[in-house]
Amino acid sequence: MVSESTSERSFFAVSALLFAACAAVTIVWSTSMSAMREMEMPGGWTMSMMWMRMPGQTWLGAAASFLGMWIVMMVAMMLPSLVPMLRRYRQAVARTGETRLGWLTALVGVGYFFVWTVFGMAAFPLGAALAAVEMQQPALAHAVPMAVGVVVLIAGALQFTSWKAHHLACCRAVPGRGHPLPADIGTALRHGVRLGLHCSQCCANLMAVLLVIGIMDLRAMAVVAAAIAIERLAGERVARGVGVVVVAAGVILIARAASLG
Q1: Stated pTM of the model
Q2: Which residues contact 121 (CB under 8 A, 6 or more apart)?
Q3: What is the chain's alpha carbon radius of gyration, rounded to the nearest angstrom?
Q4: Within a 10 A sphere around the Cβ of 246, how many other Cβ atoms?
């Protein structure tokens, strides 16, 4: 029988390997995308090729490519903040005497990242449609830098809301409220989906910042991932501190867009 300490070490080792692999793939993918020439747009900004089809590529192929990149990127970004939640789940299930913690933990992860996959499936058609409109309407494209600043400002303001505090608390809650959880497949998947729903709502404003600033920008990815992990570990007070920084960034972006007018 595998001891509890050995199981715990294996859990952290597998998590670290998965994170390293997905981070490496994300870096390679982002580097290859940044090497491609971005489209200059009215208003002094550039549009990422992420929202466009490559030559000879169908829209279905473009969507599949985006979704594959999105899933890998989400694993790299969210795993650091997910690991503590998975550990709490393992502790809750272990109270029942269950020994299949590895498989059940994996199922929680599947449910969790299924929610983020749906998020990506919604993001691509929206981003592609906006990109198409911006290429056809120069006046709209010219207003994008100001719109980006407004989105960042709103995202920062949401950090101070009770909505944010509620979902952040749900992400940090002890599974089963301190009681043992049933050790079955359905419970594991539902727990993962529930975590994913709370997390996606908790992080939606910060993910919006990433989407409008540059989804393939490695620096932006690292900053957003760090903010998500830190506020998940430290709680509401840190989330408000993140909000101050994001609001300030939004004000700066709006001021810069206004000066370029």
Answers
A1: 0.87
A2: 63, 67
A3: 20
A4: 24
